[in-house]
Amino acid sequence: xxxxxxxxxxxxxxxxxxxxxxxxxxxxxxxxxxxxxxxxxxxxxxxxxxxxxxxxxxxxxxxxxxxxxxxxxxxxxxxxxxxxxxxxxxxxxxxxxxxxxxxxxxxxxxxxxxxxxxxxxxxxxxxxxxxxxxxxxxxxxxxxxxxxxxxxxxxxxxxxxxxxxxxxxxxxxxxxxxxxxxxxxxxxxxxxxxxxxxxxxxxxxxxxxxxxxxxxxxxxxxxxxxxxxxxxxxxxxxxxxxxxxxxxxxx
Length: 251
Hints:
- By secondary structure, this protein is an alpha/beta fold.
- Helices cover 33% and strands 19% of the residues.
- The strands form 2 sheets. The protein has a 5-stranded parallel sheet with strand order 7-6-5-8-9.
- It starts with 24 loop residues before the first strand and ends with a strand.
């Protein structure tokens, strides 16, 4: 049987209108941070699951404490109107009427995950991270300009040394990073493995998006990797392509 015989696609925004579509598992990955009224949304999900106390609900969002701790300015952009710590994510789901089973981080501590059920009591221990969040927010505000200046200095150093620079990762991280890098730094290309992006251009700064194979011809002096979790994979891709270059990663 083909995939169409096993999967039903509903091309609509999720709402209580689909509460009759019973599920054992409800998954929402990297979406909640794009929603302004998060309590309203999660409460709606809870209402849609009335009568299904055993359904597991799984949400995934960026980890704000990691962003603050690393002063990762490339992970702060306008599309994300909501940011969460483990404590605030747990609190949101409890307020919306869920029982929280667990909250944890993965993907190099870049993302938070929460597993919950539409029940009346919570089994997870209460997470209170308000104090470290406040402290790290103050540190971020005080030091982020210095972090941006350090990266600008690093990129200008490569440029003065005659090394052509490309970034690897033509997503939101790349846009945010290049916006802060400044137009005086010459970076002509952004590499991405997604073929649907090739031949298009980054928002704001205008770098052309190319595939990894392009590097065989271009031979950059430095590749700045937008997500350090992919450094080993990218290094292997470059080895197969026969491209020798310096690799640095945002961290």
